[in-house]
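Dissemination and training. As part of the outreach component of the grant, students in the summer workshop were shown how a complex can be specified as a set of sequence lines and then modelled as a single object. The example used during the hands-on session is reproduced here so that future cohorts can follow it. Participants entered these lines:
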Amino acid sequence: MAVQPKVPKGISYPDELSKVDYKPPEKAWMDTPVVLKPNMFCWGNKEKSLKAVDFPNARAWSVADEDWKLPENWKEIFLEGIRERLDKYRTFRLFMDICVRCGACADKCHFFIGGGDPKNMPVLRAELLRSVYRKYFTGSGKALGKLAGARELNIGVLKELWYYAYQCTECRRCSLFCPYGIDTAEVTIIARELLNLLGLNIEWIAGPVANCWRTGNHMGLLPHTLRDTVEMFKADLETITGVKVDYSFNRKGAEILFVNPSGEYFDPNGNITFMGYMLLFHELGLDVTLSTYCSEGGNFGFFTSNEMAKRLHSKVYAEAKRLKVKWILGGECGHMWRVWHQYHNTWFGPVDFLEEPVSPITGTKFENAKSNKVVHICEFTSDLIKHGKIKLDPSRNDNYIVTLHDSCNVSRGMGFFEEPRYIIKNVCNNFYEMPPNTIRENTFCCGSGSGVNASENMELRLRGALPRANALKYVREKFGVNTLANICQIDRAALQTLADYWVPGVAIRGVHELVGNALIMRGEKERTTDLRGEPLLGKEGGENV
Amino acid sequence: MSLEELLLEKKPIIVKRWFHLILKTYPADTVGFLKKQKNQFSNPVGHTISHGIEELFEELLQGMNPVKISPILDTIIRIRAVQDFSPSQAIAFIFLLKKVIREELQREGSENRISEDLSRLESRIDEMALLSFDIFMKCREKIYELKTNEMKNMTYGLLKRANLIYEIQEEEPDLKSSNIINSK
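and obtained this result:
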């Protein structure tokens, strides 16, 4: 046996170090109190953001403070909120009752897969609320308590609910695997509604909601700012293509109202997607108008309460009515389409003052839009391509080796898989799919959806993005993929940062940016760069002077 | 038989035990999933760790080449750097290998016979731990850089939108052909 070197008292011998038990203590989830970790949560809402839309119990509070300054009767408000929603939403009651904890959903959440926190298993995340439901609304829970999976509502439980309600992106991947059809995202949605009753939101959501209600978009961009921005895009497009594109805002009598996520006016990746739309509309001579009143397709109200989502959504139709357009065309957004597809008809039923959308270029009747009168830009563009109505030069995208990230809301939320792929295959020469269990309805969320795309919760976002990035890394190594295309503004804004950590060297692009690059326009000059001003493949020498 | 040869022979069992010990650094409810789900896309964490440590082990026996070892370590540490670990917990998995190797050798009764070789090998493991520290720091610095960049881009965008700043354009206007001069 080797002689042990002398070490001062209280310090371990080296070989004792190897005997340290690294295993975390094993405790049941109910006995593991929540620890709110910086980098994992978003800042709490500001008082003014809730006041602006008359949300209750608006006050200044901070997540990191011990005291959340709750109203005295907070418990009562919360439990009454549950009761009200159990009566109102049959789904909620069902989802509270029918889970058998089979675990089919447990390992399907990107946050659990990437982070390993058991409370991010969808079943357990829902159980955080279910346990409270059982305690106060079921006989067994009242009588048997913990034995029946029930627990008292206290401040620790409330904080835990808040912490995990904003660690779910409502992407619904878990619900795909539930044999009972439980939509766990709906449980998160209700949990957030309940917390909102207590003035407990996050500023990244509450701020945009207030802005959207007041100025028409998340960022609070005013009409003149929107016009300046689009004017700037116009100047850039003229430099690149030699074509002066037309556009209009708030034009009465236009055939089509175009609604897009406002991030496209602001985020550098979104900007170029928007420039793609502008080129396309100009080339087609489409009778389309933008609106400064309804300058937001996204609906962060959807992340606060059913009523708020409805309020914000109603602005789209108020504007369509005011401008007397025939139908609505929608841009590359994620949850805007989920709202339209899954909630609009319940709120408003078929719209009676607009016409069933017909493409003025191809004559195609979009029968699927009979009720809502809204067409997705990818449906519109793929129809154009199918009918040979636009000329395309895919070689202008030869710098890009592309894969497609199915954005959760459009893929799982509305079964929209083929159109973006069809477009990409027509505007790019290099396209490769990620592995089948990570795309289409199985797609992995970007990790930043449902309003948690702030910067202060970067660690959470990075965990959540791991499964998506892992599949992306695979196609990068196998096929040299350097571009991730998608049709969601949150993807475009958030995924670039996440790719820079997990898979450096991959650029995030909107599908209509790729369309804009490839579109051959009347009167255009020879293109030497793409819409970002980057030289096209083979044109690296720059323009001849 | 040299220590390296002996350990190479025992590679499957050592890597397996090392893997299981690493999994135990995760919450009990998570271990089953990380261990059982074999699909690399459904379980990127388990897959990255199990493949990574196998490669690390092989490299370790062949010497200690930081150029080869660093990228493998990176795949694992990049993940642990964003998970629920303190810095020491995040890289402690390296030291678990010492424990596994010692226990395996003890089982064979050959720990003392090759104790000199063993301390040489353990020094390599220590070196690997130091490398891990560098990588961990790089990952954490990257996270803060990304946070800062998001903030910076947003602020810059806002200033630009508010017309508070005007950048020098890459292409200055061509005054000769400008309409102002020629419009006379």
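Strands of chain A lie at 256-259, 288-289, 327-330, 374-376, 402-404, 483-486, 507-510. Students were then asked to discuss how this feature might be tested experimentally.
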